[in-house]
């Protein structure tokens, strides 16, 4: 019974409507993306990607459907002329054929359409592989096994592998689909109890397809030979002894066997039937098992393992050389450093890096920035701040803790569409504090602060535009600039009757949405009718979206891997975000492959809400590009940093004009360029093993290093992050802004093994230096130092804690100084929350250690004095010194008892103030002041006592007594 005409039209009409909706959505995405690229003047990037992906989509879809559909139609066309009965009695397949026949064209079209869509999408996704292959740049280095240029493995091999994958898929699908068609239409039958009966046409067709499959298998075996340089079989990555002496010849033999077997299948075209195809198939499987699997396993078991060091040594040497080149550490300067020194006080005073060492921990003081500079609840700072350097009015360069005040959205209860997208549109202000200076209350001494922004740093940098429309918290779209005569965008809280100062965006960023067409398509993109109906959107309005700095750089340069920590800087009077960008690959021959996310993980990545790095494995990385994003208008600028990188040269051919030469970087921008954070973490991970260049020593592994656990985190197996600070390296006359880390021996992870720093003071790509401590010198590592601090100053810290207050250790910094190593650690006190205020830390103590001497004081200068004192005086005999020390101790004992009693009373008063209901904050402040005075006097009295110091404890683990609460220690 046929359906009435109207119901029969419903299905095609619904399909047509669905197709129209899909096309509109696709066009909306493409059109709005084009407008975005046009807003940053980079439509060439969009068109190159779109055309490349479009061509690959069409080519991939046509080739795949052409091959599979052609074989499907061929199998149907050569079906038996008199139907399936020519092969015998009716078969169960006949029922399936009879059900399929009325709809075979529809099924065929749907299947081929789906295949075309899937394959075309897959092919379009390989656009980067194709462009790198088509624009490949030679490296000038050859791999040690095949003597081919590295570019062959970096660009050609991945492309050939994708081509083979495509062809294998096409042939396998053709075999499967053709076999099904032949089966359904009587081309062959599976007999019972066994055997197959087939027509000549079916045998010929399937024999040819199987022969083509084996030819592709031969090509795959040939390509496998080159991919042995990425093998993980041996002691290290790269072709091992077994790979070179067993697998390599085996792959060649298997390729020849595959060609022979393919010829046997092709012979079935001339003489179909017989047992030869079965023999060929069996020969191929048996050869793959015996030659490709068993033989290399026997060589590995009986030749390599009994004498692995001697067999693998040449291949370990290849891996060491390739890995050091691929990760950019081949030129690392490794020098012996005594680790012990005896500097004079005058030398300490002259060293700018010691006197100016950064005390503010960018993780801990984030809460303090919130408390002091948040101004209103709808503003926010990152959970961990950044470290940069700026000049004072007198020209002195100081490390600074910096952040921008970003907006989080409307206050609670006011989160409507207008407020969210038209009023609360941007953050405001650059906030900074010198890293080595605090107020008398232990708070950051801000030199850029408040709203409107003010302070000495604002004057010296010439900051003119403090508004932040593009930032790390800018995740939603906003519409700006619509009413110049009646501004409605909240600029900053004011003191007038309205309680706020408004502004109107005048930048060039964003896409104009004054026209109905643009508003229509953005309304579809965001599913928001207000974009069409709101009268607050005028012909001058612009929509800003994709506002996160990393997101913008990723869109204009999708071939780059971005650093996880964009940081703000004042450059030429504007706030800009600086992002380090890398070219990465996992195709460098013989280089060790590691997970990028694993290499950069430490306490800072666990704490930060940062751009997560992918779990992709890499074995090549270069900091090839420095990117900037203007915080006001969103302008994205890419600067070439490593001009020698062949991968970057390849992409410059793809996108000419996208990357500007380094010579166009302004002088102010160059002042804020730093050694890349993620690159440094990757390189320290590699150098923990690959500082060893001798293959035999590398195999033994006795001199491998580890990055120490973060002693201030209170957790095991979480690495200490590297720290940004200005240090004076041996042989240098002035401090350089560096990224620093330490190493401890892998076998005995307590003593210090080495100190590493990276800086860009000498220009791109940067310089790495390692100060290696002699094995005979026992220098305390970070864990031991933390243990010493905890044990030595437990009493002082317990008194500072005042019961409910929390003691937080800041970042434990390490500085090379006068042949030794100086450790500096700030200690913060965080009072409990109260009176509607969140708790925030205050710097109360500075702990220092040099050799076996330790010091603790309110300021760094006082702590250094406790350690170094005045060593310029004439030394007296030991007996005379001992007598004087004993006399001083007797004189001070009474004073110490009095001071301890005074501290205890202040502690009791503070406790009583905290336990009062409500809390008596006035008395608590007075008690804190009295406690501070008592502790200061105790510190001076203790410094006057004999300076015999305890030896460093043998363990790096803090004792339970007086252990402060764990505190995060991110990169600073």
Automatic annotation (TrEMBL):
InterPro entries in the cross-refs: UPF0182
N-terminal signal peptide: none
GO cellular component, one term: extracellular region
Chief location: membrane
Keywords recorded for this protein, A-Z: Cell membrane, Membrane, Transmembrane, Transmembrane helix
Topology within the bilayer: Multi-pass membrane protein
TM regions (residue ranges): 9-31, 51-76, 106-125, 163-185, 206-223, 252-270, 277-298
Region Disordered, residue ranges: 940-972
UniProt entry tagged with the keyword Transcription: no
UniProt cross-references to Pfam families, sorted A to Z: UPF0182
Biased composition (Pro residues): 951-972
Subcellular location: Cell membrane
Protein family according to the UniProt entry: Belongs to the UPF0182 family.
Record-given protein name: UPF0182 protein Tbis_2952
Taxon lineage: Bacteria, Bacillati, Actinomycetota, Actinomycetes, Streptosporangiales
């Amino acid at each position: 019974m046929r359906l009435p005409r109207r119901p029969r039209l419903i299905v095609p009409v619904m399909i047509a409507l669905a197709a129209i909706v899909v096309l509109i959505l696709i066009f909306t995405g493409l059109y709005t993306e084009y407008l975005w690229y046009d807003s940053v003047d980079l439509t060439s990037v969009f068109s190159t990607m779109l055309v490349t992906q479009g061509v690959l989509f069409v080519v991939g879809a046509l080739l795949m459907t052409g091959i599979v559909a052609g074989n499907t139609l061929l199998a149907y066309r050569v079906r038996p002329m008199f139907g399936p009965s020519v092969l015998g009695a009716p078969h169960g397949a006949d029922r399936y054929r009879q059900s399929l026949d009325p709809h075979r064209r529809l099924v065929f079209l749907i299947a081929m359409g789906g295949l075309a869509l899937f394959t075309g999408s897959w092919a379009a996704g390989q656009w980067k592989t194709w462009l790198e292959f088509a624009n490949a740049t030679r490296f000038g280095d050859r791999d040690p096994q095949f003597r081919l240029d590295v570019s062959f493995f970096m660009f050609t091999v991945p492309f050939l592998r994708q081509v083979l994958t495509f062809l294998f898929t096409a042939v396998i699908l053709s075999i499967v689909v053709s076999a099904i068609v032949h089966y359904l239409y009587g081309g062959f039958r599976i007999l019972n109890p066994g055997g197959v009966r087939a027509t000549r046409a079916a045998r010929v067709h399937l024999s040819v397809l199987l022969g083509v499959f084996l030819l592709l298998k031969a090509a795959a075996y040939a390509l496998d030979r080159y991919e042995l340089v990425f093998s993980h079989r041996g002691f290290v990555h790269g072709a091992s002894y077994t790979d070179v002496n067993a697998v390599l010849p085996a792959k060649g033999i298997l390729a020849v066997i595959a060609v022979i077997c393919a010829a046997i299948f092709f012979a079935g075209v001339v003489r179909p039937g017989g047992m030869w195809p079965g023999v060929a198939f069996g020969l191929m499987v048996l050869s793959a098992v015996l030659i490709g699997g068993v033989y290399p396993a026997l060589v590995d078991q009986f030749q390599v393992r009994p004498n692995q060091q001697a067999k693998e040594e040449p291949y370990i040497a290849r891996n060491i050389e390739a890995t050091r080149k691929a990760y950019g550490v081949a030129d690392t300067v490794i020098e012996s450093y005594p680790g012990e020194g005896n500097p004079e006080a005058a030398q300490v005073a002259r060293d700018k890096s010691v006197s100016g060492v950064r005390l503010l921990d960018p993780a801990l003081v984030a809460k303090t920035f919130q408390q002091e500079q948040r101004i209103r609840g709808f503003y926010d700072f990152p959970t961990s701040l950044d470290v940069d350097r700026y000049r004072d009015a007198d020209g002195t360069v100081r490390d600074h803790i910096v952040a921008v005040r970003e907006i989080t959205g409307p206050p609670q209860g006011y989160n409507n569409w207008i407020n969210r997208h038209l009023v609360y549109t941007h953050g405001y202000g650059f906030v900074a504090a010198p890293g080595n200076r605090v107020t008398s209350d232990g708070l950051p001494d801000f030199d850029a602060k408040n709203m409107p922004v003010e302070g000495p740093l604002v004057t010296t940098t010439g900051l003119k535009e403090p508004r932040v429309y593009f930032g790390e918290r800018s995740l939603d779209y906003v519409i700006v600039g619509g009413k110049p005569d009646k501004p409605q965008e909240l600029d900053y809280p004011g003191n007038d009757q309205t309680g706020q100062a408004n502004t109107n965006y005048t930048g060039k960023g964003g896409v104009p949405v004054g026209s109905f067409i643009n508003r229509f398509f953005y309304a579809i993109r965001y599913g928001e009718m207000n974009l069409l109906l709101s009268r607050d959107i005028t012909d001058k309005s612009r929509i800003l979206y994709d506002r996160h700095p990393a997101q913008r750089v990723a869109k204009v340069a999708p071939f780059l891997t971005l650093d996880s920590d964009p940081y703000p800087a004042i450059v030429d009077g504007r706030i800009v975000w600086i992002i380090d960008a890398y070219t990465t690959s996992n195709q460098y021959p013989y280089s060790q492959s590691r997970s990028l996310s694993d290499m950069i993980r430490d306490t800072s990545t666990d704490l930060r809400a940062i751009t997560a790095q992918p779990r992709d494995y890499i074995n090549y990385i270069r900091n090839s590009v420095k990117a900037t994003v203007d915080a006001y208008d969103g302008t994205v600028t890419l600067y070439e940093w490593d001009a020698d990188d062949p991968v970057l040269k390849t992409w410059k051919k793809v996108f000419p004009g996208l990357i500007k030469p380094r010579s166009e970087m302004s002088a102010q921008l160059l002042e804020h360029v730093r050694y890349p954070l993620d690159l440094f973490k990757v390189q320290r991970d590699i150098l923990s093993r690959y500082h060893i260049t001798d293959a035999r020593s590398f195999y033994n592994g006795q001199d491998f290093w580890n990055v120490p656990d973060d002693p201030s985190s209170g957790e095991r197996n979480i690495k200490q992050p590297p720290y940004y600070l200005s240090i004076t390296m041996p042989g240098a006359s002035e401090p350089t802004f560096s990224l620093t880390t330490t190493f401890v021996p892998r076998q005995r992870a307590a003593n210090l093994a080495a100190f590493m720093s990276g800086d860009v003071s000498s220009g791109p790509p940067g310089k790495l230096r390692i100060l290696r401590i002699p094995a005979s010198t026992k220098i305390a590592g970070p864990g031991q130092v933390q243990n010493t601090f905890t044990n030595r100053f437990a009493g002082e810290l317990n008194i500072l804690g005042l019961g409910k207050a929390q003691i937080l250790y800041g970042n434990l910094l390490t500085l090379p100084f006068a042949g030794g190593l100086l450790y500096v650690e700030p200690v913060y006190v965080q009072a409990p929350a109260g009176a509607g205020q969140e708790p925030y830390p205050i710097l109360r103590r500075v702990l220092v250690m040099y050799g076996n001497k330790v010091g603790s004081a309110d300021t760094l200068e006082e702590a250094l004095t406790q350690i170094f004192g005045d060593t310029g005086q004439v030394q007296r005999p030991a007996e005379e010194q001992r007598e004087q020390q004993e006399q001083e101790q007797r004189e001070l004992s009474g004073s110490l008892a009095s001071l301890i009693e005074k501290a205890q009373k202040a502690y009791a008063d503070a406790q009583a103030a905290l336990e009062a209901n409500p809390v008596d904050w006035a008395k608590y402040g007075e008690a804190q002041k009295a406690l501070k005075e008592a502790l200061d006097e105790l510190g001076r009295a203790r410094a006057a006592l004999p300076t015999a110091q305890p030896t460093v404890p043998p363990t790096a683990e803090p004792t339970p007594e007086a252990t402060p609460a764990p505190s995060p220690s991110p990169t600073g």
